Amino acid sequence: MVFVDRLLATLVHLRHGVTHDVLACWFGGDRSTITRAIGEVRPLLAERGCTLSSGVRLRTLAEVIDHLGAGGKTGIIDGTEIRVRRPAAGRKDRDRFISGKSKQNAVKNMVVTDGDGRVLFCSPTRPGSCADITHARQLGLVKLLADGPAVEILADAGYQGLGAQTGGRVITPPHRKFKKNAPDWYEEMHERQRKAHSSRRIRVEHGIAHMKNWRALARHLGRREHTSDIVQAVAGLLSHQQTADLTSAPQR
Questions:
Q1: In terms of domains, do 198 and 225 share one?
Q2: Which helix (H) or strand (E) holds 153?
Q3: Mean pLDDT of successive 10-residue segments in the chain (252 residues)?
Q4: Cα dihedral angle (81, 58, 118, 80), rounded to 10 degrees?
Q5: What is the DSSP code (8-state) at residue 116?
Q6: Domain limits for position 44
């Protein structure tokens, strides 16, 4: 297969979840040829990073933090899960993929968007049992924010604790000061603050939803070793599409 056909087969597989057997019929080749082609092109797409503009891409979390700091922009982070097959019986790490949130076998990624919901970064996958805050620490987010530019990062309650470690740069929903018998004025104030925070960070949910529209991320039935390349390839392709849409949008 020529490179254009290999690329097209990979894009169709990621976007629509078409099986290798069907792609082999479409392109008039063998299933093993399609499998090899997708295995070669998918890592190339994952390495492209997320597109900011023509020829400008972000590939690491450090580059994202520098970009947000240079432009004085707000970043939004959130974790997302992709269901995967259960590891075979007898494997010692079988329980590592059970998510505490969904109670299903999954892998987890951390997604970073800007205030408009444009995808800027998607991390490699971790087993579903890894907590969101632990994943963020393992990616070096605390050190990058503590040593880097002043950046405001919005996050949900799963990241509570990072604010104190980053000098208040990670903003999470307010803590409840009253667990029982809270006065009415406090309930009203807390609910207002919670909704205000949620309305600011909802853009990251929209970005993740656009990623999940790609059928390859609905549920992964293949090898779990490929999920990092798949999700990062989709994030890069989606960011390129978002950039193209902004560029082609009519100026008002």
A1: yes
A2: strand 152-154
A3: 94 94 94 95 94 86 94 93 87 84 90 93 94 94 90 93 91 82 80 91 94 89 90 94 71 52
A4: 10
A5: T
A6: 1-48
